[in-house]
Amino acid sequence: PGYSTTIKEPMCLQVMQEKLQAGTYTTWAPFERDMALIWLNAQTFNPPGEACAVHGQPARGCVAAGLALVV
């Protein structure tokens, strides 16, 4: 199945950058949610063993740790 069939709520870094520049994120919660959605979508769409699925969880952990330092 295609990406749009599998992933019901797509998110990418470009959209997040646009939201940052537009001032859409007024708290950390929506930013964190969108970031988590990127990793969830990557793990959902890509088969186990693919780079996105394998590295998605550690990358998600790094982002969470970085946000914890900022928030």
Keywords, please?
mainly alpha, 71 residues, 0% strand, 73% helix
Write a brief structural summary:
The protein has 4 helices and no strands. The protein has 71 residues and is mostly helical. Helix 3 packs antiparallel against helix 4.
Question: What would you note in describing this structure?
Answer:
This protein is an all-alpha fold. The chain is built from four helices and no strands.
Helix content: over 70%
How many DSSP-defined strands? 0
Question: Per the principal axes of the C-alpha atoms, what is the gross shape?
Answer: flat
Q: Termini separation (Å)?
A: 38 Å
Instruction: Output mean pLDDT.
Output: 84
Q: Count of helical segments?
A: 4
Strand fraction equals: under 5%
Order of helices and strands: HHHH
Rg over alpha carbons: 13 Å
Write the layout of secondary structure elements.
Layout: H1 3-6, H2 13-22, H3 28-45, H4 51-70
Helix pairs in contact: 3-4
